[in-house]
Design goal:
heterodimer, A: 299 residues, mainly alpha, MetI-like fold, 11 helices, 69% helix, 0% strand, B: 331 residues, alpha/beta, eight-stranded mixed β-sheet, four-stranded antiparallel β-sheet, AAA+_ATPase (chain B), ATP-binding (chain B), Peptide ABC transporter ATP-binding protein (chain B), ATP binding (chain B)
Amino acid sequence: MKVEIAPTNQALPPKAAAARPSKWRTFYRKLRKNKLAMVGGCIVIFYIAIALLAPFIAPYDPYEIDLVNKLKPPSAEHWMGTDDKGRDVLSRLLYGTQLSMSVGFVAVFIGAFFGIILGLLSGYYGGWVDTVISRIIDVLLAFPGILLSLAIVSALGPSLFNVMIAVGIFSIPVFARIVRGSTLTVKKLEYIDAIRSLGANDFIIIFRHIFPNILSPIIVQATMRLATAILSAAGLSFLGLGAQPPLPEWGAMLSNGRDFLFTAPHLAMFPGFAIATLVLGFNIFGDGLRDALDPRMKQ
Amino acid sequence: MMTTQTNPTKKPLLEVKNLKQHFPIKGGILGRTVNHVKAVDDISFTIHEGETLSIVGESGCGKSTTGRAILRLDEPTGGTVLFEGQDLLAMSKKQMRDMRKHLQVIFQDPFASLNPRQSVSAILGEALAIQNIVPAHQRRERIIELLGYVGLRPDQIDRFPHEFSGGQRQRIGIARALAMQPKLIICDEAVSALDVSIQAQVLNLLKSLQKQFKLTYLFISHDLGVVRHISDRVMVMYLGKVVEIADKKSLFDNPQHPYTQALLSAIPVPDINKKQERIILRGDVPSPINPPQGCRFHTRCPYAIDRCKTEVPGLTSLHDTHQVACHLAQV
């Protein structure tokens, strides 16, 4: 029996490369199906829009003191009432969105930036590099986040900027651990060996080939971390270590409203509600992202 | 006795001498090295320019490890690997990076060996850029040319790996190796993951490319049919050792080592009238952590004598192109 073998240099029929849905389209479809995630996404987009539009939509100047109209309950003029210095709560809340968002994004950026670098180095090189970095991360993880940031802020002095740094630092180990784990998985794949056997240096391998392939867990973690960062920053401001008066930071507003909890409950209620919904929004959106991007990562 | 065969008509391209690859096993609380897996234990062989040497053996015998050690994808424990007379293992990381353009590798799994986020042009363009083989403005033309060599169309240049079939992806992997204009290509189970019909196509492609570009192959496989199709010489490994190395004809027609004989008897013969004696080995492959004393095969060898249990057999020449490591071989 003679076996015919197809001539080699003939191109394969084009249908062999049948179009499979791209990775992003699958991701988007999965995300769209997840109702809860879409709600979370809408909340997040809503708050981002507010942060961007605050100067245009705020009815009053958030710093304008009007002692005649202090501690007014919600009314047609002041939708969310006024605080103990007669400032419009709604305007302060809208401007506060900018502060909370920037704290969240800056802190997560700091945490992600250093966490990713440490995680990549320790995962890729292993050995003593990994041992040293992992032990440092273990030490950072051993502290409860809020305690660690309390210590950092008290060392640096109370200000909103220092809160960003503190929250950023306590986010580093979380990112570093996730990146380290993903790097360990990806670096064992054959295409990394293939790139190395082409003669690529470590820099190319790490940043051009490993990093883009571990982005999904990083994006998910960053979204979830935004919620934690905003909550921690509000917590620190509530304790008086973050935003200083008269900044309309939500945590500081909440702290201020605490003194009038019985006479003017709206002072604490609205900032509290804003913090809760934004954190909730980021969390459920992050959950949805995780399910859509990387179903195996479910904890 | 331990030297591998010398063929006066051919120039050696790669000479592997006493290559050892022992992987440490960490244990205990302190993570100390408690033992070693002797994946490759003191093997020597030579590949001549323009030939195809195959390494066969069952899973875990060290054939892939040998390939990876030669490329320094894992750093070997000991030995020398001379490529055109230069010792690869003695080179610095930087020297080795420059050297890599001469030694390429084609991997087993065409789904894992291409970065899913890079298009074909990015994959091949990067290969050309890393070693700066072709100036930037000529790269696209060169990529199209490379695709032509491996039987892909120029219009597929901007597609991503997931848009290709397994066989096509393996062709991209081959094109990537070819981009370097290498002298030696290590094919690590290069066709094992493909359908039989595609296997034949890819094998024939490899053969025609070998002729066209005067390539030398180190072909690692567990499939004796494939090995028979592509090799000039065949090396049989068992538990980290070379048991037999010979030209293809001599090995398939006149296997000397009992392990080779058992392997070859497992090839099905498509003839119902032909009675074939099947040699069935008993037991499992012993652990490479504590390999048997003496001949490593003696625990499963049907002909083992007392000498096999104590004395390690060296490779002895049967004739010019056939060497075997067995005390009972009729030398």
